[in-house]
């Protein structure tokens, strides 16, 4: 019941954050810090909040209609989707967005969230999008067991998502002449490429961190699941 309540709170919180951001956060079109093209869907923060909303909604559905048993005899589709989604996207994306945002913010906030946007982007929403995602994801890792897919499969899904987003960012730039994030405007092309490579390595590091933390927190369950899989394979 506690797990179900936690998942419901997570789903409602991130859904409301997305709803409020989309409906009420309106940046004047005369602003030089953003381009109106693509709306909120150009921001990784917003896409991640949508991802977390979907994940926690699936988690609620799994709590009600699926199972949270470590080694069920038949793992429902909901559970398989939930486990894969958390491992490959929800966990690494949440930590990547939270750590990179606050890291750049600490160095020079004008590169990530210019002060000119403060009247339009409330502090509580900033924390929902950039702080709570990390907190809720870490709690989720500690309270719900999942088996990670093979590293090849997991990193393929994650890298495909990130490379697709990079293509999306450049499409927006070539359509509008404006970068989604001010930091990209401050870099030349060699430095931008280095930034992209570093970001990809960084988020892959968060994937490995999640996998290792999962093994640490759920060592008995991981061992039991591996043994069960070997028995079935015989």
List keywords for this structure.
single chain, 234 residues, mainly alpha, 9 helices, globular
What do these coordinates show?
The protein has helices spanning 2-24, 44-65, 77-108, 123-130, 132-143, 151-176, 182-185, 189-217, 219-233. It has 234 residues and is an all-alpha fold. Helix 1 (2-24) runs antiparallel to helix 5, helix 3 (77-108) packs antiparallel against helix 5 and helix 3 (77-108) crosses helix 8 (189-217). It is globular and about 60 Å long. The protein starts with a helix and ends with a helix. The model has no long low-confidence stretch (mean pLDDT 91).
SSE arrangement:
Blueprint: H1 2-24, H2 44-65, H3 77-108, H4 123-130, H5 132-143, H6 151-176, H7 182-185, H8 189-217, H9 219-233
Helix pairs in contact: 1-2, 1-5, 2-3, 3-5, 3-6, 3-8, 6-8
Discrete helix count: 9
Given the C-alpha coordinates, what overall shape results?
A: globular
The end-to-end distance, rounded to whole angstroms, is 37 Å
How does the major sheet shape up?
Answer: none
What's the short story on this structure?
It contains 9 helices and no strands. It is mainly alpha-helical.
């Amino acid at each position: 019941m506690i797990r179900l309540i936690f998942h419901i709170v997570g789903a409602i919180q991130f859904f409301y954050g997305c709803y409020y951001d989309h409906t009420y956060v309106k940046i004047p079109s005369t602003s030089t810090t953003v381009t109106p093209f693509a709306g909120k869907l150009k921001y990784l923060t917003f896409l991640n909040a949508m991802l977390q909303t979907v994940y926690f909604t699936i988690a609620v559905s799994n709590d009600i209609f699926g199972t949270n048993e470590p080694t069920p005899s038949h793992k429902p589709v909901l559970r398989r989707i939930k486990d894969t989604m958390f491992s490959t996207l929800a966990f690494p994306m949440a930590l990547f967005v939270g750590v990179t945002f606050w890291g750049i913010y600490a160095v020079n906030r004008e590169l990530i969230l210019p002060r000119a946007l403060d009247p339009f982007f409330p502090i509580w929403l900033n924390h929902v999008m950039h702080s709570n995602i990390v907190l809720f994801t870490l709690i989720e890792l500690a309270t719900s067991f999942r088996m990670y897919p093979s590293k090849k499969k997991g990193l393929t899904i994650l890298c495909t998502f990130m490379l697709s987003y990079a293509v999306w960012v450049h499409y927006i730039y070539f359509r509008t002449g404006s970068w989604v994030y001010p930091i990209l405007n401050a870099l030349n092309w060699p430095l931008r490429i280095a930034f992209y490579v570093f970001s990809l390595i960084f988020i892959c590091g968060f994937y490995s961190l999640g996998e290792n933390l999962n093994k640490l927190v759920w060592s008995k369950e991981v061992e039991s699941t591996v043994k069960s899989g070997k028995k079935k394979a015989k």
